[in-house]
Design goal:
Radius of gyration: 24 Å
Low-confidence stretches: 1-23
CATH topology of the largest domain: MetI-like fold
Number of helices: 11
Order of helices and strands: EEHHHHHHHHHHH
Strand content: under 5%
Mean pLDDT: 81
Distance between the termini: 34 Å
CATH superfamily of the largest domain: MetI-like
Largest sheet: 2 strands, antiparallel
CATH architecture of the largest domain: Orthogonal Bundle
Oligomer: single chain
Helix content: over 70%
Number of domains: 2
Length: 279
């Protein structure tokens, strides 16, 4: 009778630690993001056909697509799209890496020392609700419109997220793991390196994924106000000339690069935290 079981009953599935059924992804499920993208493009095309907005304010997908080769080769505002992509990507990478390198040790220190927490937390809570856009004019006055001011805007906007997630990760380390390490004679440094930090890494990577989005928000704001190149500058420049197609291309580039950076962080997390989500 086993051989007569319906195919639906023979599907390959497994259950995780919570008892929920986890079905292996199929080709259709992997194609869902592409189907969603096609649906959005179709909706966009419908909106242009019904003339909900004038063609100058909402160009068709085809007209935007036709603009892409020109902006890659001829460019806009004296430089190509590749130049703007490179400038913005370099800025976000530099500011984000500095935020991680500085924020993770500060978060570990604050989670491990009550004195450090009481000393740093008031400043952190003061800076955290301040919109990065409010800091741009001040940083431009201090450091000019060069790369320093933009890197600082990205770092100041991103570092609170990194610090708070690191604190949460360190404090969520199971006490039993620390006690076992102590019983085995581990030093404080060894406990930090082999117990605390690995336990905190999932939260740290979550903070990094949130932070990369915040970083792009800060960068675009800074480039709109004070820049001569970059995707934020491109949006501002095209908006002043009512070049809506160029604005769509710049937004698309920002979204794709941000998505690629998020995927890179996830791949890094998978390599460094292979046990995450496993019983």
């Amino acid at each position: 009778m086993r051989g007569l079981a319906p195919a639906a009953c023979r599907k390959v599935a497994r259950r995780d630690a919570t008892g929920m059924e986890e079905v292996r992804p199929t080709g259709l499920k992997r194609g869902i993001p592409f189907l969603v993208a096609l649906a959005l493009i179709a909706l966009w095309e419908v909106l242009t056909l019904v003339h909900l907005f004038p063609a100058m304010l909402l160009p068709s997908p085809l007209s935007v697509l036709q603009e892409i080769p020109r902006i890659f080769t001829v460019g806009y505002g004296g430089q190509t799209l590749l130049t703007d992509i490179w400038v913005s990507s370099a800025r976000i990478a530099a500011g984000f890496v500095i935020a991680v390198v500085v924020g993770v040790p500060i978060g570990i220190l604050m989670a491990s020392s009550e004195v450090a927490f009481q000393a740093i937390d008031p400043l952190l809570q003061f800076v955290r609700p301040v919109p990065p856009l409010a800091l741009v004019p001040l940083l431009v006055l201090w450091f000019g419109i060069g790369e320093t001011s933009k890197g600082l805007v990205i770092m100041l906007g991103t570092i609170p997220v990194i610090i708070l997630n690191t604190i949460s990760g360190v404090r969520s380390t199971p006490r039993q793991r620390v006690q076992v390490a102590q019983c085995l004679g581990a030093t404080r440094w060894q406990i930090l390196r082999h117990v605390t930090l690995p336990s905190a890494l999932p939260e740290v990577f979550t903070g990094m994924r949130v932070g990369i989005g915040v970083g792009w928000t800060c960068l675009v704001a800074a480039e709109i106000i004070a820049a001569t190149a970059g995707l934020g500058w491109l949006v501002q420049e095209a908006g002043q000339q009512l070049q809506v197609g160029i604005i769509f291309i710049a937004i698309l580039a920002i979204g794709l690069i941000g998505y690629a950076m998020d995927l890179l962080i996830r791949l890094l997390e998978h390599a460094l935290v292979p046990w995450k989500g496993k019983a």
